[in-house]
Amino acid sequence: MDRHEEPLCIAILGAGSIGCYLGGCLLATDANKHCNVTFIGRQRLQDDVRQHGLTMTDWRGRDQHVDSQHIHFTCENDALADADFILLCVKSQDTQSAAAIIKQYASDNAIVVSFQNGVTNGAVLSELLSQQVIKGMVPFNVFYQGKGHFHCGTEGNLAIQDANKQCSSLVSCFNSASLPITVYDNISNVQYGKLIMNLNNAVNALSGIPLKEQLSNREYRKVIASALNEALTVLSAEGIEPARTGKVIPKLMPKIMALPNFLFNIVAASTLKIDPQARSSMYEDLVLGRPTEIDYLNGEIDRLGKKHGIATPVNTNIVALIKQAELDEKGSPMLSPSQLL
Question: pLDDT digit of tens for each residue in the chain (341 aa)?
Fold first, then answer.
């Protein structure tokens, strides 16, 4: 049931690529004119949005625009005060600081939906906050192309854990915006399925080339296959079976990635919809000189490997390479497949 019949107040805390895309799609939909959306993010994006508005495109042909006069984008956290739902889209390393902001400014009745990478953020938030925390997952990639333009380059449905149907009104808003949400009683294995998919983020960032071009190269795919095999081994030791987040079954992914190009292209045509423009958000982080989420992605595999005494040389090396690229502050190092192994 809906929490009330008044227009929903939705605040997006950490309005970067994912947050601006989600909020922009909500605003651009006629059926959602009753939803009030507030974006809370960096000054750089606020300036861009003030000048250019928001444009949302995707690999299927979505092309929507919202003029700046219809957008409430602020850098002030007190905008959380009236929110019914807070969509948390900050990087995983910023979860604790975001929780402190929510604790200070948000209503106790607000519902916090964690649309973040990684598998630990929901538990961290629940421990720190009095508000109801809903675990979520964003399966697709969004790349900021500048001038307020956010492009979704891969497919998939949003997902949330909402056994008590507390988010029905929010789900309706997203469905109206052609952003369908799959609702689960328990989302843990789905989050691990997304973690498996996200292990390629670092490979893409280190390669420095578009995602589709990178995946068309079998040598890069062999690197991914090795990282995936390590991940599946340590997750099995942990008693976790990652669930599929799209059309690909996680345990089959290493074999698919290792296929010869002509066979991979046949499989990819039906299972992996990727826009030629798509890149990983980690690539964007390196370009902008920002810390990445590597500790919560490949680093999580490294951590579980150490816990169970299982070597994870590929993931461990990828973590080290990303951390070195962060220190160098020169964007992507544009490494070859052999340098990643």
Answer: 344 467 899 999 999 999 999 999 999 986 567 789 999 999 999 999 999 999 999 988 999 999 999 999 999 999 999 999 999 999 999 999 999 999 999 999 999 999 999 999 999 999 999 999 999 999 998 999 999 999 998 888 999 999 999 999 999 999 999 999 999 999 999 999 999 999 999 999 999 999 999 999 999 999 999 999 999 999 999 999 999 877 778 999 999 999 999 999 888 877 777 788 788 999 999 999 999 999 999 999 999 999 999 999 999 999 999 999 999 999 999 999 999 98
* Cα distance between residue 146 and residue 138, in whole Å: 21
Which strand ranges, in their side-by-side order, compose the sheet holding 111-114? 72-74, 36-40, 9-13, 85-88, 111-114, 132-137, 158-161, 181-184
